[in-house]
């Protein structure tokens, strides 16, 4: 049993390592938080290498991600109840496409990886329940345990957000809750059921090696857009480079305080392969006037590409909700990190943190 506990302890790491709100799986016993692990992990090169995908398979997968990633990215600001049906539908679309892209051996291994990524919550999968012949009584016990973990985790995170508990204490407490959840699950399973777990998950995969779990960045839209220097820019043309896309409004004071940081990134990292792109999405009537936007950019000394997003097409495509916001996009076009608001607000070392991420992405 200790070996099985060790296996479960290294499973389920994907959901804990990803900074997204998990969807909630509806069960006959209630809603339980379950991260959309297939959506998250299939885009990463480590997973693709584990599946031994060919270049043509990766190209076909990317075509599917272009279709599903936009809606998935835009759903990030919704409540879990609103996210759930979107994530479920996109996961179904992705799974359907993968069924025609992957060969039987790859499908089998991917199924194992999904169960590994879910950890204890793999028992919510129909095929796992069927394979283990889980009883209604066992499922009731599992769901009650999961619900307790979720509720206590929410309370801890709320306490941390309110400044009542430090992050280290909260993270350690949540880790303890997950340990308790694993032990509870193993105690509830019979010896025969525990013996089948290994075949359901296969050899352990190091989910800590996964770097790419966020969607492809939406391509820049041209509707109502006008570029300050007259030359349109696309993300596709900068594939192979790291891109920082920042949304701002030139009269926004918090935006003004971030602008020197973007200029410094452009100055310090352009030769290393960083491209900075500004998108001025208007908040006021003055910010809709091209000449004023151009004059403001010149006054700020901006010498990287800037678009006037007059119809807010790009703002909506990214589902941006705050001025300023900046997104960091890796060399393959995937969003890797974003920051909303003033980066150094009240002493927060946000600019340095983003700079560290830029350097890491450039080194990949």
From TrEMBL:
Q: Which PROSITE patterns match?
A: THIOREDOXIN_2
A Gene Ontology molecular function term for this protein is: oxidoreductase activity
Signal peptide, first to last residue: 1-25
Record domain Thioredoxin: where: 211-363
Q: Which UniProt keywords apply?
A: Signal
Which residue ranges traverse the bilayer?
Answer: none
* InterPro entries xref list: AhpC/TSA (IPR000866), Thioredoxin-like_sf (IPR036249), Thioredoxin_domain (IPR013766), Thioredoxin_ResA/DsbE_sf (IPR050553)
Q: What is this protein called?
A: Thiol-disulfide oxidoreductase ResA
């Amino acid at each position: 049993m200790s070996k099985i506990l060790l296996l479960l302890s290294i499973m389920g790491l994907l959901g804990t390592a990803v900074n997204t709100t998990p969807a909630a799986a509806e069960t006959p016993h209630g809603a339980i938080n379950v991260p959309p692990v297939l959506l998250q992990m299939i885009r990463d090169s480590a997973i693709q290498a584990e599946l031994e995908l060919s270049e043509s398979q990766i190209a076909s997968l990317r075509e599917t991600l272009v279709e599903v990633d936009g809606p998935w990215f835009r759903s990030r600001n919704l409540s879990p109840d609103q996210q759930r049906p979107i994530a479920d539908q996109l996961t179904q679309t992705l799974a359907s496409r993968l069924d025609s892209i992957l060969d039987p051996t790859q499908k089998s291994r991917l199924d194992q990886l999904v169960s590994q990524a879910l950890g204890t919550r793999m028992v919510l999968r129909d095929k796992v329940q069927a394979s283990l012949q889980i009883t209604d009584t066992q499922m009731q016990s599992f769901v009650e345990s999961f619900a307790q973990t979720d509720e206590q985790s929410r309370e801890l995170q709320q306490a941390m957000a309110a400044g009542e508990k430090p992050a280290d204490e909260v993270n350690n407490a949540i880790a303890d809750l997950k340990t308790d959840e694993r032990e509870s699950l193993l105690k509830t399973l019979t010896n025969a059921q525990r013996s089948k777990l290994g075949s359901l998950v296969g050899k352990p995969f190091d989910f800590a090696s996964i770097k790419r779990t966020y969607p492809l960045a939406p391509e820049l839209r041209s509707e109502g857009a006008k570029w300050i220097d007259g030359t349109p820019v696309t993300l596709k043309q900068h594939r192979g480079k790291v891109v920082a896309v920042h949304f701002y409004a030139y009269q926004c004071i918090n935006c003004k305080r971030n602008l020197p940081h973007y200029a410094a990134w452009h100055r310090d990292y352009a030769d290393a392969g960083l491209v900075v792109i500004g998108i001025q999405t208007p908040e006021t009537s003055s910010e809709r006037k091209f000449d004023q936007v151009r004059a403001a950019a010149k006054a700020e000394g901006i010498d990287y590409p800037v678009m006037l997003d007059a119809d807010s097409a790009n703002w909506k495509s990214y589902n941006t909700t705050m001025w300023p916001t900046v997104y960091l996009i890796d060399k393959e076009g995937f969003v890797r990190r974003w920051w909303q608001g003033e980066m150094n607000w009240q002493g927060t070392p946000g600019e340095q943190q983003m700079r560290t991420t830029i350097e890491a992405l450039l080194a990949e």
